[in-house]
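Technical note accompanying the year-one report. For the benefit of new consortium partners, we illustrate the data format agreed upon in the data management plan: each record pairs a sequence with a structure-token string. No post-processing was applied to the example shown here.
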Amino acid sequence: MKKILFLTGDFAEDYETMVPFQMLEMVGHQVHAVCPDKKKGDCIKTAIHDFEGDQTYTEKLGHNFQLNYSFSEVTASNYDGLVIAGGRAPEYLRLKGEVLRMVKHFFEENKPVAAICHGIQILTAADVVRGRKLTAYPTVGPEVALAGGEFQDVPAHEAVVDGNLVTSPAWPAHAKFIREFLKLLGTRIEL
């Protein structure tokens, strides 16, 4: 069993919070879902983003997601991997110095990191994408390039792996995204 730090926050994308969290627990990993300035038992509100033919996604109120661990009690060195949810939460989470320090730890120690959609904004703010190939929601592509990363424009159902990092543009890629993260963790599922 691996210990996973799962970073999310208010108005993170609903599917990108709930589905990976549940998938990782399903395979037996211990997953600590946290948000800065919140503690175990607090809820975040999620947002449902859908693709309905507009120039960008639409947004609707999602679910209340209960955090199962307190951010203030996190010690990054105690975790085997990191997952960062997308949605709007990364816009403000990337402003938290402690979040950026935690993210840098996972890269300095070459631990598996999975980030989806706008979650990549935290990676660009932490200055850990320089020279790496990665993807994100397309509107984050310019940020990736400005941070020195090589943006990969792939369909929403794909994932990109570069070393210890797996990224995906959006929730339609959950199966590939989590499968690649599990490979990086060394997780074996026997049927």
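Partners are asked to follow this layout when depositing records. Residues 3-185 form a domain with the Rossmann fold fold (CATH 3.40.50.880).
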